[in-house]
Amino acid sequence: xxxxxxxxxxxxxxxxxxxxxxxxxxxxxxxxxxxxxxxxxxxxxxxxxxxxxxxxxxxxxxxxxxxxxxxxxxxxxxxxxxxxxxxxxxxxxxxxxxxxxxxxxxxxxxxxxxxxxxxxxxxxxxxxxxxxx
Length: 133
Ligand SMILES: Nc1nc2c([nH]c(=O)n2[C@@H]2O[C@H](COP(=O)(O)OP(=O)(O)OP(=O)(O)O)[C@@H](O)[C@H]2O)c(=O)[nH]1
What we know:
Elements: E1 2-13, E2 16-22, E3 34-35, E4 38-40, H1 47-59, E5 64-75, E6 79-89, E7 100-106, H2 121-131
Parallel strand pairs: 1-6
Antiparallel strand pairs: 1-2, 1-4, 2-3, 2-7, 5-6
The protein binds 8-OXO-guanosine-5'-triphosphate (8GT).
8-OXO-guanosine-5'-triphosphate (8GT) binds at residues 4, 6, 8, 30, 35-40, 81, 83, 117, 119-120.
């Protein structure tokens, strides 16, 4: 089974977390799900560099990586992913969507209002455990 290595950014600005929605996809379990922006790690690339590059490419946003958060291994019906996630900061909430169909800046307590990709569930759980007080 194909194994993807992915890095994703949990971008926080003034306590709000950026959540982005993927468009239609051939796999229904990915289609229109919310996720953290990011993408595939290129050969020889550090995962923390992947998030900076992808967030610049996808959202025209400059972020700073603050800390390693969680690595998730998830098996979807058609492929597996290993996803590294990082807490990141950004000076402004300005962004340009190019690959996603919508975005939301949410408080940690609102994260479960969204329909997340299954691989993101452990990240959302940990964010709620660690940040919601
Ligand atoms: N970026 C990102 N991908 C995720 C998350 N959760 C999750 O299951 N994925 C899956 O991981 C894979 C990452 O691919 P991607 O499409 O973001 O990566 P990319 O931009 O490098 O690929 P592309 O150039 O083929 O579009 C997709 O299958 C996506 O559905 C997430 O939180 N963020």
